[in-house]
Amino acid sequence: MPKRLAVVTGGMGGIGQAICRELHHQGIQVVAGYSREESAALTWQSAQQKQGYSFDIAYADVTHFDECCKMIEKIEASLGPIDILVNNAGITRDHTCCKMSKEDWDIVLQTDLSSIFYLTHAVLQNMKQRQYGRIINISSINGQKGQYGQVNYSAAKAGMHGFTKALALEVAKQGITVNTIAPGYVATEMIMSVSEAIREKILSEIPMGRFAQPEEVAHVVAFLTNEKSGYITGTTISINGGHYMQ
Predict the structure, then answer these.
(1) Rounded to whole angstroms, how far apart are CA atoms 150 and 92?
(2) Is 231 a catalytic residue?
(3) Which CATH number fits domain 5-237: 3.30.70.140, 3.40.50.300, 3.30.2350.10, 3.40.50.720?
(4) Which pLDDT tens digits describe the chain residue by residue (246 residues)?
(5) Strand order of the sheet with strand 133-138?
(6) Selected catalytic residue, list 153, 185, 231, 244
């Protein structure tokens, strides 16, 4: 079997890095997508190399359709066909609805939701021709239950579920699976930087009494990319310690 090639957007964040590493452990060639300064991306790549992880990196502003297409074209021209796409890029811009600016609404919807269409559109035709593909969208518990001050983020993450189900129907007979993962609160730098009082309040609502580790999310991504997971499509897997049960 040829070595699979995966693209992970937002690959240098807490969850993204864990996903890149777990896929590397599974023998998958990984391209980490980024939208930060190139110097910072190269520093990250070098640090990963020193720890035994060989990742390619690729830049794109995921809020722009053409840039996403160019990134995918460049990757496939230099490394070969993309087998796995993990749509992980995301941001927050939190305000209550009446105080939220149009700019904060637009940028979150573009980054967290429109980007998955842009990137999936760019890889899909080649996946259909090869009759193989794994598309995994990283949503959030807040796309399932909502969250105060996050009408933009919750709307974007909820939209992923509809996107996943509709696309899964379109490509089910062509060897392509499409699934969503909805993590709860994960012990990333963003969560650990909030005040202790807020963290304790969140923890009190989680039956397991702890935050998820990024590696636990990455493990489920790797599970869905496995050849033996080819009969799982159009579904959402929640990783939230029992925080929200549907």
Answers:
(1) 8
(2) no
(3) 3.40.50.720
(4) 679 999 999 999 999 999 999 999 999 999 999 998 999 999 999 999 999 999 999 999 999 999 999 999 999 999 999 999 999 999 889 899 999 999 999 999 999 999 999 999 999 999 999 999 999 999 999 879 878 888 999 999 999 999 999 999 999 999 999 999 999 999 988 788 778 888 899 899 999 999 999 999 999 999 999 999 999 999 999 999 999 775
(5) 56-59, 29-34, 5-8, 84-87, 133-138, 176-183, 236-239
(6) 153
